[in-house]
Write a structure and sequence with these properties.
Structural class: alpha/beta
Shape: globular
Bound molecules: NADP nicotinamide-adenine-dinucleotide phosphate
Radius of gyration: 19 Å
Largest sheet: 7 strands, mixed
CATH class of the largest domain: Alpha Beta
């Protein structure tokens, strides 16, 4: 089968590889769309290896397609349209994945849209709702809000009636995110002042951060009493000085989180929680995954470059349907 393959440090190719063999409890899906994530860029550079037991040279954390075989009596059936979350290997014509991480595609969604859901929405829901215990109406700040995870977080928070602010380094992205329903969007230099002013000096209850070190002090200053900061990544750097006094005085919590390395059971719990709260709203049309653009699998190298150049608002998705590789 054809697959995106990491053929060496920073060397990505579309290659012929053997089809995956399902283990106990797995289903095999013929993939028609596979989402791209920041983690794929790190994996290509050798910085984010998959957990043990997961195919190491084929990236891809999410997919949509049709079940072609099953190794379990429960879960989706052969011929069913599905989408799923995996620890690697999704950017290929076929993927074998635990059936508990594969769900029926919601009514009314295309495969491209379904493939854009799992990693971003499960991450956002787990961070905001499960870990930060976001309550209805609380204010949220999402850094890099125009990212796939950022816009999923905007949706998850908006479903709880939570005004959501964001940051981006691009004025054009700021306009787009405002049009998608953010309460306010600020740049990296003055986000603390801008959001403090927009909230009448009160600040926010929960911050979802993927930038890290350079934002920490200002994040803590922006949090209200008993606020929660969830750190997803450290794109801007992982080292910083932390003044503990704000933490103590305001009784703040700082939480770190990572989805990929969790056990299948832990991931299934996160997927199920997201499914319960978020999935029904895709079928009603209240929310819709934001797709920036698609690339055919054969143009995976260009797709990775597009993401790396920070050009996307929302998700970039690889498509495999009706593809000619000749
Ligand atoms: N912990 C977890 O389980 C988990 C799971 C999924 C994702 N994540 C993390 O969540 C973040 C978003 O992931 P994604 O796949 O949705 O990303 P994405 O769509 O590729 O978007 C990432 C955006 O981050 C901004 N950015 C990049 N470098 C930056 C820097 N040095 N400083 C500030 N902003 C920067 C850029 O937006 P602007 O142009 O708007 O600045 C870029 O478009 C990533 O950091 C990813 O690693 C963590």
């Amino acid at each position: 089968m054809k697959a995106v393959r990491i053929a060496g440090p920073d060397r990505l190719i579309v290659d012929d590889v053997p089809e995956p063999q399902p283990g106990p409890g797995d289903v095999v899906v013929r993939v028609s769309a596979a989402g791209l994530n920041r983690a794929d860029l790190l994996q290509r550079r050798g910085l984010y290896p998959p957990p043990p037991g997961v195919v190491a040279d084929i990236p891809g954390l999410e997919f949509a397609g049709v079940v072609v075989s099953t190794n379990t009596a429960t879960g989706p059936r052969v011929g069913e349209r599905v989408f799923g979350l995996c620890a690697g290997g999704a950017q290929a014509e076929y993927v074998a994945n635990p059936a508990v991480l594969v769900l029926p595609t919601p009514e009314g969604l295309s495969d491209v849209e379904a493939a854009a859901i799992p990693e971003a929405y499960v991450t956002a829901h787990d961070a905001l709702v499960t870990q930060a215990e976001l309550a209805a109406g609380q204010r949220v700040l999402v850094h890099a809000i125009a990212s796939g995870v950022g816009l999923a977080a905007l949706h998850v928070a908006s479903l709880r009636g939570c005004p959501t602010f964001g940051t981006t380094r691009s004025a054009a992205k700021a306009q787009r995110v405002l049009s998608l329903g953010a309460a306010g969007v600020a740049g990296p230099d003055d986000f603390d002042q801008a959001i403090m002013a927009a909230t009448n000096g009160e600040g926010v209850d929960v911050i979802l951060d993927s930038v890290g070190g350079p934002y920490l002090e200002r994040n803590l200053a922006l949090l209200r009493e008993r606020g929660r900061l969830v750190v997803l990544a450290t794109m801007g750097g992982g080292q910083t000085n932390l003044s503990l006094s704000a933490l103590v005085r305001k009784r703040l919590r700082i939480l770190g989180t990572a989805l990929r390395g969790r056990t299948v059971e832990e991931k299934a719990a996160a997927l199920n929680a997201c499914t319960r709260d978020v999935l029904p709203h895709f079928s009603t049309g209240r929310i819709r995954p934001v797709i920036d653009r698609t690339f055919p699998l054969a143009q995976a190298v260009q797709a990775y470059a597009y993401l790396e150049e920070n050009r996307n608002v929302g998700k970039v998705v690889l498509t495999l349907a009706d593809e000619s590789f000749t």
